[in-house]
Amino acid sequence: MSYEKGYEMLAYVKAGRIDEMFALLDEVWGDWLRQGGTRFPENFMPKEPLKKQLEFYGRPFGLSLCHGANGVPGVMAVLRGIYGFSQNDNKPNEYTLNPTLWQMSRAQGRIPVKEGFITLDLHKGNVSTVTIPAGCTVKVIWEGREQTFRKAGTYKL
Asked: Which 3 state secondary structure label does DSSP give 59?
C-alpha cells in the first residue's frame, strides 16, 4: 500500500465519508503506532506479519522508516476531517473551521497560519473556544451555529 494517501484522505473529507477516512487512518497509521512505530514507513502492509511489513524491495529490514511525507494523511485527517479547516482562495487571511468530532467528545488543537496560531478547544455539547491571532478572519461553523471573528482573541462557541 503506497503512502500516497493524503489525496485519498482529502477525497473522503470532501465526500463527507469521515467514518471511512478514520477507519483507513486506524488501519494503517493506528496499526503502525500500536506496533511501537515512531516514524512513518514508505510502504504500508497492515495485514501482513511484522517481519513482512519490514521488508522492502525483497530485502529483510529494507524498509525506510524516515519518510516524513507519510505523515500527510494523518495531518489531512485531523486538519480537514476533524477541524474542518480551509483557507479562502481569494482572501488568504480568511479561514473557515467546520469541525466534526466524529465519535470523540473533545478535541484540542493548534493550527499554524501565517498570522500565528488558531487554537481550538472543542467539547461536544458543551462550551468550546477558539483563539485567533491578529490579522485574520475566522468563520466557525459549530453545532449548527455560524460565527465570524475578525479580531484577535478567545471566543466561546
From this structure: strand
Q: Which helix (H) or strand (E) holds 130?
A: strand 129-132
User: Which segments of the chain belong to CATH 2.60.420.10?
Assistant: 84-156
Between the two ends of the chain, the Cα-to-Cα distance in Å is 40
Give the strands of the sheet with 145-149, arranged side by side.
Answer: 85-87, 94-97, 137-142, 145-149
**Positions in the chain short of pLDDT 50:** none
What's the rounded Cα separation, in Å, for the pair 89 and 86? 9
* CATH topology (fold) of 84-156: Maltose phosphorylase, domain 3 (2.60.420)
Q: How far apart are the C-alpha atoms of 28 and 34, rounded to whole Å?
A: 10
pTM, full prediction: 0.75
Nearest to 40 by CA among 60, 69, 62: 69
Contact predicate 1/44, CB 8 Å? yes
- If we measure between CA atoms, which residue out of 94, 134, 100 comes closest to residue 117? 134
